[in-house]
Target: UDP-glucuronate 4-epimerase
Amino acid sequence: MPSLEDELFPSTPGKFKIDRNHTMNRQFHRCFASTSTMFLWALFLVALTASYLSFQSFVDSGSRYFTASWGGIQWEKQIRNSAQIRRSNGKSVLVTGAAGFVGTHVSLALKKRGDGVVGIDNFNNYYDPSLKKARKSLLNNHGIFIVEGDINDARLIARLFDIVAFTHVMHLAAQAGVRYAMENPHSYVHSNIAGLVTLLEACKSANPQPSVVWASSSSVYGLNEKVPFSESDRTDQPASLYAATKKAGEEITHTYNHIYGLSITGLRFFTVYGPWGRPDMAYFSFTRNILQGKPITVYRGKNRVDLARDFTYIDDIVKGCVGSLDTSGKSTGSGGKKRGPAPYRIFNLGNTSPVTVPTLVSILERHLKVKAKRNFVDMPGNGDVPFTHANISLAQRELGYKPTTDLATGLKKFVKWYLSYYGYNHGKAVN
Ligand SMILES: O=C(O)[C@H]1O[C@H](OP(=O)(O)OP(=O)(O)OC[C@H]2O[C@@H](n3ccc(=O)[nH]c3=O)[C@H](O)[C@@H]2O)[C@H](O)[C@@H](O)[C@@H]1O
Model:
């Protein structure tokens, strides 16, 4: 039988060979062996502590990356209150990108009719975060709580699903903007691909699984020339990385529908505009420049053809989003496993009457009562497409979607909001 010493210090030629016949030697070795055992244990404990500490710092630095300031009893209470349903057969909806343009309007519409709404937004500085904070205040005033966090933070998303059994997710968080993708390509991958997958992972694991409605984009039609654009038209020729990530989103959501039974509705928004809009978009930046007496750059296509967009007013988009939530059908999975086929739908949400960019400028001039200084420039090869035009018959049939606001009417409402929000009085900012 090997002794304990033998097991701890196997008889190998050299250093630790034990002479069993020599008592002193034996005592020395016993003493040495127990010291060494202690030494080994100490080493083991040090290693264990070191790996625990480095794991903690990894977790902490992860949290710092997501600037997580969430958690706690008060925080959970605010989420539960915000998610409270106040009508029969109401929904509890997690709205991602809730402090964004479309997110704010959809959250308000849902809350006003009695649905529970919890928002999440990372308040990044792609455009003026103070506008996002102002939207947040607006939502807070209506009893909507916005969690400050990133959809890439899997722990946070999982926690939200622990606190609330969301029936629906309205996923609007994204890196938007067609031309900015050349400046910061990775932000598109971070939000529109990685963030989407993190969110879908949480949705797939949630019990019950929510139904997911999310924002795709008219830009997926890319170089498609068949007009108007129908959902069945080809979308494999994106003209920008932004469009490519949105198209990838359509494929990614399809796999989650196919494998896990998530109910998915993708909405291809066509150049959405209106009050509380996005400062990076043309109608918004043109307004700012016109009021400040600065020139605006108007792009022109090949052979000096005017560019055109199927500009769609925010209230019409909201109706399309709410209609999608109401008709989404249930997810079928549970415990991360599919239990049957679930709906997978894609809809165009456009105005179905394109307007050229110079006409947009003329309408703004009329509403602002200020003449624009136009600089016509050939459209740079930066991801833009010459025109968009939605065929909306599918959304009309399935969602009852029927846009009612033309560009002149919608821009009038936008200009009214803009002048009031930025404190303009007779064409001059007062603050
Ligand atoms: O429909 C969509 O899918 C997309 O609509 C917009 O993208 P875009 O149509 O390019 O909207 P704007 O950036 O407002 O541009 C509108 C038109 O004005 C033109 N433009 C833009 C900026 C400028 O300085 N000058 C100018 O002539 C553009 O070329 C374009 O024809 C949004 O920015 C995207 O996030 C959205 O996904």
Remarks:
- The mean pLDDT is 89.
- Residues 23-65 form the longest helix (43 residues).
- Residues 176-178, 217-219, 269-271, 281-282, 297-299, 307, 309, 357, 384 surround uridine-5'-diphosphate-glucuronic acid (CB under 6 Å).
- The chain has 13 helices and 15 strands.
